[in-house]
Design brief:
The protein is α+β, with helices and mostly antiparallel strands. It folds into two domains: 117 residues, Diaminopimelate Epimerase, Chain A, domain 1; 103 residues, Diaminopimelate Epimerase, Chain A, domain 1 (Roll), CATH 3.10.310. Helix content is 18%, strand content 40%. The protein has five helices and 17 strands. 47% of the residues are buried. The model has no long low-confidence stretch (mean pLDDT 96).
Length: 273
């Protein structure tokens, strides 16, 4: 087996390995995702993004978590790949195909990239939840909000997000029986008009410095609770994202970084196909 080229990127410290499979090549497997995601024996990432061919868009994206499970959406990785492909093609906008649907992406100026993550899903079946209930106040201590942005989210509004022991809090709710597909977990404090402090536990990855889909879900939850307007700034451990919930979907704007290119060795790949 030949070596496998990859790129390392991040959006506000939410980091990704990116494999370009346009034009063909061996499929990426959960075993490869787990091995590559190991920060001690592989490369390490929060998510792996695989670029493929698309008949409907500039490219198709598939996402894997560090534990090898698939992630239906990854906002920051979508922005990172969109920036890379726009630079490659000399364009300032394009569309990417994901499990979420076709996502519009554009250069927002000043080195920022904007992506429409699509309309939020707030029905219990869409998220999905284990049974019918009010998604604005789940019957869990803290009465969190459930939202889907192509992946499930459970958002807790708290007095002080910094005071929550996220390493213990996150996995407890990631695996809550109300979420049959597990869930991303957010703890959020309102720190000013249309300004939210967010800390994230990602399904299949753990604590992350930032999360695009979590930021979108959090603003949707805040609007539904009457805490912010549809345009808000989300302050994450890794920096800030601007979220704008419009009629056509939830738009997210922020910086991206392409850190380095590398090649996985045949020895590393052996037995992972």
């Amino acid at each position: 087996m030949d070596g496998l080229p990859f790129m390392k990127m991040h959006g506000l410290g939410n980091d990704f390995a990116v494999i370009d499979r346009r034009g063909g090549g061996a499929p990426v497997t959960p075993a490869l995702a787990r091995a590559l995601g190991d920060r001690h024996r592989g490369v390490g990432f929060d998510q792996l993004a695989v670029i493929g061919d698309s008949a409907q868009a500039a490219a198709a994206l598939t996402f894997y978590n560090a534990d090898g499970s698939e992630s239906g959406a990854c906002g920051n990785a979508t922005r990172c790949v969109a920036r890379h492909l726009m630079q490659e093609a000399g364009r300032d906008r394009l569309t990417l195909e994901t499990a979420r649907g076709l996502l519009a992406c554009e250069d927002a100026g000043g080195g920022l990239t904007r992506v429409n993550m699509g309309p939020p899903q707030t029905g219990w079946r869409e998220i999905p939840l284990a049974e019918e209930m009010d998604t604005l106040e789940l019957p869990i201590e803290g009465a969190p909000v459930a939202t889907a942005m192509g992946n499930p989210h459970c958002t807790f509004f708290v007095e002080d997000a910094e005071a929550i022991p996220l390493a213990q809090f996150g996995p407890r709710y990631e695996h809550h029986p109300l979420f049959p597909e597990r869930t991303n977990v957010q703890v959020v404090s309102r720190i000013g008009p249309d300004r939210l402090r967010l800390r994230v536990w990602e399904r299949g990855a753990g604590i992350t410095l930032a999360s695009g889909s979590s930021s979108c879900a959090t603003v949707v939850a805040a609007v539904r609770r009457g805490l912010t307007g549809p345009r808000a700034t989300v302050v994450l451990d890794g920096g800030e994202l601007e979220i704008d919930w419009r009629e056509d979907g939830v738009w997210m704007t922020g910086p991206t970084a392409h850190v380095f290119d590398g090649v996985l060795t045949p020895a590393f790949l052996e037995g992972l196909s």
